Amino acid sequence: MIIQMQAIGSVERDPKLHITQDGTPFTEFTLAVTTKRCVEDITIWLFCYAWGSQAETIQQLVTKGSMLFVQGHFTPHQYMTEDGKQEVSLEVNVEQFSFADGRELQENDQQSETRLCTGCEP
């Protein structure tokens, strides 16, 4: 079963590009999503992964502090903290993303439209 999600949040640090042993590029980044629960704001951390040409695009254009919209499927992982609290982290396999702050991108000294990247190359 695949669970789809959509989220808007702030990128915690510049995405890192990696290459698998078979030559497939992938990038990882953390997205901080702030929401209100009762009367307090809470932050949910999403550990995001993108593959193929989408990974290269994210690595080139996304920086720390960027506001992103991401869509994809997620997997929850339960873990125990050092102080014995049970926590959950969410890993998101990004299938689509776009900038959520309305900014225009500069690419090769030419303005381009904010793009929505789709598809995942395994």
Tell me what you see in this structure:
- By secondary structure, the chain is mainly beta.
- 8% of the residues lie in helices and 61% in strands.
- The protein is built from one helix and nine strands.
- It has one helix spanning 52-61, and strands at residues 3-11, 16-19, 25-37, 40-51, 67-80, 86-99, 105-107, 110-112, 117-118.
- Residues 105-122 have low confidence and may be disordered.
Q: Care to give the gist of this entry?
A:
With 122 residues, the chain is mainly beta. The protein has one helix at residues 52-61, and strands at residues 3-11, 16-19, 25-37, 40-51, 67-80, 86-99, 105-107, 110-112, 117-118.
- Cross-sheet strand order for the largest sheet: 1-3-4-6-5
Poorly predicted regions are 105-122
Number of E strands: 9
Major pleated sheet: 5 strands, mixed, barrel
Estimate the global geometry from the Cα principal axes: globular
Overall residue-averaged pLDDT value: 82
> How many helices?
1
The end-to-end distance, rounded to whole angstroms, is: 19 Å
Radius of gyration: 15 Å
Which series of helices and strands comes N to C?
A: EEEEHEEEEE
Class by alpha and beta content: mainly beta
Strand residue content: over 45%
Helix content: under 10%
